[in-house]
Amino acid sequence: MRRTLPLILVLTVAIAILTVVNLLIGSVRIPVADVCRILAGSDSGSEIWQNIIWKSRLPQVLTAIMAGAGLAVSGLQMQTVFRNPLAGPSVLGISNGSALGVAFVVLLSGRIGGVALSRLGYLGDAAMSVAAIGGALAVLMLIVWVSQKVRGNVTLLIIGVMIGYLANAIIGVLKFLSPEEDVKAFVVWGLGSFSRVSGDEMMLFVVLMCILLPLSCLLVKPMNLLLLGDRYAANLGLNIRRARLLVIVCSGVLVAIVTAYCGPIMFIGLAVPHLARAIFRTSDHRVLVPATALCGAALALVCNFIARMPGFEGALPVNSVTALVGAPVIAAVIFSRHRNEINE
Fold first, then answer.
1. CA 4, CA 220: separation in Å to the nearest integer?
2. Cα R_g (the chain), whole angstroms
């Protein structure tokens, strides 16, 4: 506990600093004093700057914080349930289900309706969000049904991977049959972005994540028991099947919501739990769940900042940045653990 509280405080301060950096720095330079006045509700003298802060940078910051925290916690839950360090939010094919839902709406809209969904503006974005949630929840329901039929975690993991491959195969067929404009719109969605959410959509996304993330903390005790092994946890009175189901559903819903609003954001859910374990040096989920959420939020802010650094025209794909930032982190953690094992 003596080590945990200072680290939590450091991460909180880091998130606050990264938030300010994301608000200040971009393709348009806005002075610190004007940013403060805009956030305080005062007139800054430039309506363009106000629009940039309120309609672009602040929604991106809040979206990155919530998406990073949600994906990180989801990844921790998957790694705990399957006791597999390579498990992540997309391991059960839920992200692929979201992509399949969007593919059906985006790739078939031009062919069936005669109008590309990318031309419909806000209506098109709303349709993509609904399709992503529908696809993810459909796969989640299938996984829940399968989890009631099989006992082994490995079997469930393999089935989830096969569902992902099947979804990707169907998406490939839809791409082949669809107009070029629709394929381009789907590819852009698949690159992931924190800038798609704004206005009322952003507020709804933040509210949903503020509800789901605290609910994840209610699963701390079952997750700690799952680490002990199924037999030992069952002897302590844990209903293994129900606990596994609850964790999978919680993780799946987090992934579904984030993917619906931001697209498939890769690597954060896989990398951040390892980073949190390395920093806090514990397997206790009472510490790991909030720590992982904070680390995920901080890493997402770093990636968002790099994606829209001055000098880049527009913004880089978030998935490219998450891989560039996350891969060295994971490599450093693995080498550090290997060195410690050799020393011991």
1. 17
2. 21
Integer Cα distance of 21 and 184 in angstroms? 32
- C-beta of residue 112 within 8 angstroms of C-beta of residue 178: no
The answer to whether the predicted template modeling score (pTM) of the entire model surpasses 0.90 is: no
Per-residue pLDDT tens over the stretch 82-114: 887 777 777 778 888 888 888 888 777 655 555
Structure tokens at 263: 């697209």
| Helix 58-82 vs helix 199-216: crossing angle, to nearest 10 | 30
Residue 235: exposure state from Cβ atoms within 10 A (0-12, 13-18, ≥19): exposed
Amino acid at 267: F
| 127 C-beta neighbours (distance < 10 Å), count | 16
Which of 318, 274, 320 has the alpha carbon at shortest distance from 296? 274
Place of tokens 């997402």: 300
Between the alpha carbon of residue 148 and those of residues 141, 241, 338, the distances in Å are 11, 8, 38
E strand or H helix at 11, and its extent?
helix 4-24
Q: Residue 323: what are its φ and ψ, rounded to 5°?
A: -70, -40
Which residue, 203, 122, 131, 113, is CA-closest to 171?
A: 131
pLDDT tens readout for residues 163-213: 888 988 998 888 887 777 778 878 888 888 888 777 777 888 889 899 999
Structural tokens at position 4: 């945990």
Q: By the 8 A CB rule, do 274 and 327 touch?
A: no
